[in-house]
Every structure is written in structure tokens, then in C-alpha cells.
Design goal:
2-methylcitrate dehydratase PrpD, binds iron/sulfur cluster, 13 helices
């Protein structure tokens, strides 16, 4: 079996008539010396921290450490629940992702999935789907193994680091991981899950890392918000049977290549992009005087 490609994983899962999550979980337990329960329980702990982060982010909004952001997730959550939104249920997942990313910027407790900067996307998407679909908890935990499997292959073949590959590697990867988990949670096939990865990641290719004043606040939190929307739309497209012309494994390689040629100014150095707009520079000057 080919553990190094999403295609290999999906083919094996289809052959065994199991989910990607089950396959990844079994692979993890084979490489692990301790009791099987430990791996499951550790993932469950991650899930509980994600849920708590959504709750705290929505109900106890705080200003970020730098003071540039805070409270928008809660604002959007109220809007999502009180008005007809233009983007339907998606905006509920988006509000939660934003709230968790804001919590991260306020030094709250989050799960780096795959990184702290992109920590809002999976919890926002999955807690919204938990309410909508009401699956057994075990199904959600297994969908997190699916996300982990996708993240692990991206880490091997490209990168999960903004400093190395731009925000496509952080928020782009998190959205791709969430898209696959969302497909699995919604009853889609492993092949549909990896198609969601391709559809999601394709549309984040080239996304630069340009944090204002070098802080993980602006544009990071809003990129988490839009990352959640991307994940949910990609999952719906894959569930509808849409197939990415460029397969997921090739999209991942393309992402790695783009990261390698991305200028250093756009890889977390705060020397380009939004960080160097007049407003970005004003914030930078503000912090340098503190
Ligand atoms: S802009 Fe950079 S620091 Fe911010 S989330 Fe994206 S990769 Fe992380």
C-alpha cells in the first residue's frame, strides 16, 4: 500500500471499504508502542480543546495581544443566527473559525492544526457540522484522523509552514484538511475526500504570508474565516461529484513548488504584501514605539 500519496490512501480505503480516517488511525497504531487507546484518546483530547476554543472564542471575545483584532467572530456568530445570511450555514462555520483564530491571537488555548496561525479552520468547520449532522463523537474523532493524514502528506511533499511556503501552506493546508474531514463526516467516499483536498488547495495556491508587524493577527484571523468557507464549499463540490482535473497529490506538489519560488518578503518576514501597505506600516511603527 502507498502511504505516501493521497491517491494511494484513498484507493486502499476504497478497497477495504473503510474510511480514510480509519486507515490513518490503523496506520498510526501500527507505528506506536503504547496502547491503541492512547492515540484515540489523544485525538479526542484535541477535539475537546477545539470545542472549548470555539466556545471561549464566541462567548468570551478578547482583544488580541497586539490589539489589532478581537470580537469579530462573536459579531459574525450573532449575525449568522439573527439574519438571513447570503452564504447560509457556511457563515456559522466561518464565525467559529474566526473566533478560534482570534483566541489564538489572544494567547488562548487552541490546537495547532496544522499550525497555531491556522488553528481556527478545523474547529469552525467541524463544530458547525457536529451541530448540523449530529454524528457520534467517534465519527468526528475519526474525521480528525482523516485531516491528520492529509496534513501529514502535505508536510512530507510540500510544507505546513508560512515561513517556508507562504499562507497557502498554513491556511491552505488547514482548509484542505478540513475539506477532507467534512466530506468524510458527511458520508462521502475517500475519493471524494481527496477531491475536496484538491479543490480546496488549488484555490489557495500562491497565498502569501504577510502578517502585519509580524504578529499572527492580520490577516491571519480573517484568512482562517475564509479558509473555513473554502473548505465547506470544496467539500460540497466534491460531494456533488465534481472531480478536480489536477489530482490532489499533484496540487500538493505544485503548492510545494510555488512555496519554494515565493520571495522571502512574502514568507512571514512582514516585508511585503499587506504588512507593507500604508496601514500595515502604521501598525508596525505603532508597535515599534511601545
Ligand atoms: S499570514 Fe502567515 S502568519 Fe498569518 S496565518 Fe497565514 S501563514 Fe500564518
Amino acid at each position: 500500500m502507498d502511504w505516501n500519496t493521497l491517491k494511494g490512501l484513498a484507493e486502499e480505503a476504497e478497497k477495504q471499504k473503510t474510511s480514510l480516517g480509519n486507515l490513518v488511525y490503523r496506520g498510526e497504531t501500527e507505528d506506536y508502542d503504547g496502547p491503541e487507546l492512547d492515540i484515540y484518546e489523544r485525538m479526542k483530547q484535541n477535539w475537546l480543546v477545539m470545542k472549548e476554543a470555539v466556545h471561549t472564542g464566541l462567548n468570551k471575545p478578547q482583544k488580541s495581544r497586539g490589539g489589532m483584532i478581537g470580537g469579530d467572530g462573536a459579531k459574525l456568530h450573532i449575525y449568522a443566527n439573527s439574519q438571513k445570511t447570503l452564504s447560509g450555514l457556511i457563515i456559522e462555520g466561518v464565525s467559529r473559525s474566526l473566533a478560534v483564530a482570534e483566541l489564538n491571537a489572544a494567547m488562548g488555548k487552541i490546537v495547532a492544526a496544522p499550525t497555531a496561525g491556522s488553528s481556527g479552520i478545523l474547529p469552525g468547520v467541524l463544530t458547525m457540522l457536529e451541530e448540523k449532522l449530529q454524528p457520534e463523537e467517534k465519527k468526528i474523532i475519526m474525521s480528525l484522523f482523516t485531516a491528520a493524514g492529509v496534513g501529514s502528506i502535505i508536510a512530507q511533499k510540500a510544507s505546513l509552514s508560512g515561513a517556508e511556503g507562504g499562507c497557502q501552506a498554513e491556511c491552505g493546508s488547514a482548509a484542505a484538511m478540513a475539506a477532507a474531514a467534512a466530506v468524510e463526516l458527511s458520508g462521502g467516499s475517500p475519493t471524494q475526500a481527496i477531491n475536496a483536498v484538491a479543490l480546496s488547495l488549488k484555490n489557495n495556491l500562491g497565498l502569501v504570508c504577510d502578517p502585519v508587524a509580524g504578529l499572527v493577527e492580520v490577516p491571519c484571523a480573517k484568512r482562517n474565516a475564509l479558509g473555513a468557507a473554502n473548505a465547506l464549499v470544496a467539500a460540497d463540490m466534491a460531494l456533488a461529484g465534481i472531480v478536480s482535473v489536477i489530482p490532489a497529490d499533484e496540487v500538493i506538489l505544485a503548492m510545494g513548488n510555488i512555496g519554494r519560488i515565493m520571495p522571502e518578503t512574502l514568507r512571514e518576514t512582514a516585508k511585503g504584501g499587506l504588512a507593507q501597505t500604508p496601514t500595515g506600516i502604521k501598525w508596525q511603527e505603532h508597535f515599534s514605539k511601545l
